[in-house]
Write a structure and sequence with these properties.
Largest sheet: 5 strands, mixed
Oligomer: single chain
Order of helices and strands: EEHHEEHHHEHHHHHHHHEEHHHHHHHHHH
Distance between the termini: 79 Å
Helix content: 40-55%
Length: 448
């Protein structure tokens, strides 16, 4: 279908980079400065600027496509070229770290790029034909997420799959698979389990783009889809019969992002069967409504058992801590208050170790836990790691080293939560991972 357009010369300074371009889907901020920074970092704009400088202007036929809306000239095609021209005319528009790489241009080149020819189209929709041809299968391909967004915008605008196929030349099968991936990514981002800090730094389009879509979604499209009872509705959005489907998705995404301590990150080669044990409590064989059957994993430390005679004030304080953390665990309350639960968990660990040390190695207790002075939890944990004779069962010594290698491990994570929460806020799944790694078993050993 031919496109109606006009050829016009417009000042580069009067052209706006298009925030709605699918190339910029991963951006959280979409002002002109953010778009310029993105193009410089990810889209080889410096090399293009050098090419334009060497040639003395834009190559013949390289006309950006512009759509005029409310008096503004939006570049719907040719954002890289326009950005390069802007940088050549005014390097100060670029972040400081890029300015030295922008070539100095001659007066002839400056005159050539100051005002450039563009094609003016009557609507954004007309430009989509060119966008689809050039960037889905053609000259400068978009990242996968940008392609997904392109297809979804057309679907949501009322186009059928057949019409999108005619527009782009992409087969119906590729389009439908892309739409499913797009809406699955949206499902991931919409889960209410992510903290504001995680949304800002890890769980957003920019991060998912950097990690790679296949790494995130492959496990849901192979052997995992059947066990997760995963299907897609008429609008290509994911649907599952499992009531805890969101928890499983959350766990897998955290594994992909490598933010579950003690768990190796998921790659494109990881099969669902390799992580099944981690999510088995949320699968149909163990997921039921009403009271949980005996043997099913409890909420965090709700069933923590201990044997502490309330002899001293320290003993009574430790009993109070154990009871509070059990209450904070019941019904999954720790998911609502993960920070408080992390702090309390650290306190229980410290006081349990001190009490155990006082009973089993009083000399070390006197040295590491001086009265009326703060103890070093790291040194206490290191003492346990370096002295297997403290444990009647060597399995618990190995468990201790696994949780607190050289006095660190999950202790460092708890310290980060306490002293620098802006860098690492705890979450429900993070707390659950500590129990999965054996924290409850170790505490019960120390408390008996």
């Amino acid at each position: 279908m031919p496109i109606n357009y006009q050829v016009r010369k417009i000042k580069v300074t009067d052209l706006l980079l298009d925030a709605q371009n699918p190339r910029f889907v991963s951006l959280t901020e979409k002002d002109q400065c953010a778009i310029i920074s993105y193009l410089l970092e990810y889209e080889d704009v410096i090399d293009l600027a050098r090419s334009i400088s060497s040639y003395g202007g834009l190559m013949p036929g390289e006309f950006p496509i512009v759509y005029i809306e409310n008096g503004n000239n939006y570049v719907v095609e040719g954002n890289r070229r326009v950005c390069s021209c802007k940088m050549l005319l005014d390097p100060s528009l670029a972040p400081a770290e890029y300015r030295a790489s922008i070539p100095t241009i001659t007066k002839l080149t400056r005159d050539a790029v100051k005002k450039i020819r563009v094609h003016i189209v009557s609507s954004r929709e007309e430009a989509q034909i060119v966008l689809g041809t050039r960037h889905i299968q053609g000259v400068k391909r978009w990242p996968s997420i940008s392609k997904f967004m392109f297809f979804a915008k057309h679907l949501e605008a009322g186009k059928s799959i057949s019409e999108i196929e005619l527009l782009t030349g992409v087969s119906k099968g590729v389009i439908t698979r892309s739409l499913k991936k797009h809406y699955f990514l949206q499902h991931i981002l919409s889960l209410d389990c992510w903290t504001d800090l995680e949304k800002q730094n890890r769980v957003n389009y920019a991060s998912l783009h950097q990690i790679g879509v296949d790494r995130i979604l492959r496990i849901f499209s192979t052997d995992g889809s059947k066990e997760l009872k995963l299907s897609y509705d008429a609008q290509y959005k994911p649907v599952s019969e499992l009531p805890d489907f969101g928890k499983i998705v959350e766990h897998i995404v955290r594994r992909v992002l490598n933010i579950l301590p003690g768990k190796s990150p998921i790659t494109t080669r990881t099969s669902f069967s390799r992580i099944r044990d981690d999510v088995k409590d949320w699968l149909p064989t163990t997921t039921t409504r009403g009271p949980r059957p005996s043997g099913q994993t409890e909420f965090y430390l709700e069933n923590l058992t201990y044997n502490i005679p309330p002899t001293t004030d320290d003993d009574r304080a430790l009993i109070a801590m154990c009871e509070e953390i059990k209450k904070a665990s019941r019904g999954g309350a720790y998911r609502q208050y993960p920070l408080a639960t992390s702090y309390l968990t650290r306190a229980v660990i410290e006081q349990s170790c001190k009490r155990y040390l006082k009973i089993n190695d009083n000399a070390a207790h006197g040295r590491l836990c001086p009265q009326n002075r703060d103890s070093s939890l790291t040194k206490i944990l290191q003492h346990f790691c370096n002295n297997p004779v403290l444990f009647s069962d060597n399995n618990y010594h190995r468990l201790f080293i696994g949780l607190f290698p050289n006095g660190k491990g999950i202790k460092d994570i708890m310290d980060l939560n306490m002293h620098h929460p802006g860098l690492s806020l705890p979450t429900g799944p993070l707390l659950e991972s500590w129990v999965s790694a054996g924290l409850k078993r170790l505490l019960e050993y120390l408390l008996k």
